[in-house]
């Protein structure tokens, strides 16, 4: 019942700003009286899979970028080997435009879901357009 209620609230809030709630993750625990309680953030870009005009609003865009790199190809070969993390080292830096675009996406989402201006960033629709253009060019 609580899962359904939380999902309905998230869907209602996001649909008002043109976002589709695809699915999400909820984390629960049992309190000292045996009652089930939500123990993590809900309705965030990290906990839910949202889309706007068919574009994923999540860190998935970063995963997709890394999957196109030579570093990721090497990772698939070395993962599972002893000391694979040491062998691989750090992944390459993200392109500045992508890093900044994803940061703006999180900020614009916060502004729009709360109907408050916490961050001085363009609208989420504008940020999504910029990110979509970057991905399609890449």
Give the topology.
Elements: H1 2-15, E1 20-24, E2 28-30, E3 36-38, E4 48-52, E5 55-57, H2 60-66, H3 70-78, H4 84-88, H5 96-114, H6 124-137
Antiparallel strand pairs: 1-4, 2-3, 4-5
Structure overview:
This protein has 138 residues and is an alpha+beta fold. It has six helices and five strands, in the order αβββββααααα. It has a domain at 1-58: D-amino Acid Aminotransferase, Chain A, domain 1 (2-Layer Sandwich). It has helices at 2-15, 60-66, 70-78, 84-88, 96-114, 124-137, and strands at 20-24, 28-30, 36-38, 48-52, 55-57. The strands form two sheets. Strands 1-4-5 form a three-stranded antiparallel β-sheet, covered by helices on one side. It has a two-stranded antiparallel sheet with strand order 2-3. It is flat and about 45 Å long.
Quick overview:
This protein has 138 residues and is an alpha+beta fold.
Characteristic terms for this protein:
138 residues; D-amino Acid Aminotransferase, Chain A, domain 1
Radius of gyration: 18 Å
Shape: flat
The pLDDT mean sits at: 92
Give the uncertain stretches in residue-range form.
none
Helix-and-strand structural type: alpha+beta
The helix content, as a percent range, equals 40-55%
Q: β content, as a range?
A: 5-15%
Architecture (CATH level 2) name of the domain at 1-58: 2-Layer Sandwich
User: What is the top-level CATH class of the domain at 1-58?
Assistant: Alpha Beta
How can the largest sheet be summarized?
3 strands, antiparallel
> Strand-and-helix sequence, N→C?
HEEEEEHHHHH
